[in-house]
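Usage

Read records sequentially. Each one opens with the input sequence:
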Amino acid sequence: MPSVPSCVADGSKCIRAFREEAAVRVQTWMAWSIVLSVMVAVPVRVALAEKQSSCLTISRATLVPCALAAGLAIRREHRDKEVRDARVVAARRLVPSNPVLSGSLAHREAAGTNLAATNWTASLSQEFELAGQRGARLRAADGEVLAQRWRIAATERETAAYAWLAYFEVVAAREELVLAERLEQSAKLMAKAARARADQGLLSEVDADVVEATLVRIQQSRVQATARLRSSQSMLTTITGGDPSAPQAQVVQGDLSPLAGVDALSQSAIDRIKRGRPEVQALREEERAFEARASLYRRARVPNPTVSLFAQNDGYNERVYGVGLAFPIPLPAIGRTYAGEIAEAEAEARRTSTERERIARDAGLELVRAAQDLEAKKEELALFTDERAAKAERALIDIVKEIEGGRLSVRDAVVAQDRLIELLRAKIDVKHSLCVASVTLSRTAGVPLERGAR
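and closes with the structure output:
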């Protein structure tokens, strides 16, 4: 930068120097701003990328965390909790109202004399609660917060159960598609063999057409299985916070095995389970909140005293200081007695208690039925052993050989093929039903599904 004498000698030179220096400073500030914005944005983008990449592959370990992180119903319940937390803050006030500071100023003169004086009055008053209203107000607000916490737990559990059902739907659809592709290959070989014998005059054209019609039906089943897989995959992607229209498909790992630990749920734990369900706990806390609110209204009928301190300049510069005490007068017949508010809060408490008993009773019935359904599905799955499934798949291949050797009629082959395909598909359906039954029993029994893989 040029010196002061040079600036005096050449003003234009000094102005150019100042402009150049200002430009350099602006460029420096812009560079530092860019660097700081990058330093702040990079960790956020990395965290978002890690979260998105972790949910691109869904397994038993990542399913529930991704579903809970993307659950909008859970976010809504947390917003409701923020509202109730704010009510607790409002209930913590020590006094029911703010102190009141008032004053007056007047000038007085005696008629026919030169006597004059200025009168002023100042007072400070404060209302107090003596019947324990603050404690009842806090109990009501805290009860609402506790009830909302249990509602959050219930919503998380429902979200996790829904995610598990969607997960097993995808796995079942994937196994069904794999089976449909294998059946299609066998049906193609069977149709090829039948058409070859028909061309040789060893088989009627009608029988060959019947086999090809069977192939079309099996191909249709494969198309339906593909559509079911895509639909269930889109649903699971949405539940776990992904974009179902994204070109990169979500990878789902795992097999059709039920949730672990459901066999340990005994019938002797029904009473404990009914009491421990989040829905029941939420209603219990809500009932207590209504009872505390009724107590608050009953206490509010007690008049609140108002204490005041005042000072005044009376007469001719006479100082007066004093203390005042005021009580509102309750009028039972025409005044506010909070009778309606008390009756409403007590009725809400009774209604909540009845609803809690109903949910507990329904939970017990649902638990028994879910346990019975799980046992029935286990018995069904025991019929579809791996050995029988392997024999059925081998038999589908042997049918082709039997047709080629002329040892099996086409009509009998089609009937046998239908029975074997029905067996293989029924095994997948039973495995899927067993997984669904395990989720239903776990949710009904109050198992914390929101804690992750099982």
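Summary fields computed downstream for this record:
- The domain at 66-105+118-123+132-451 is CATH 1.20.1600.10 (Outer membrane efflux proteins (OEP)).
- The chain has one domain: 66-105+118-123+132-451.
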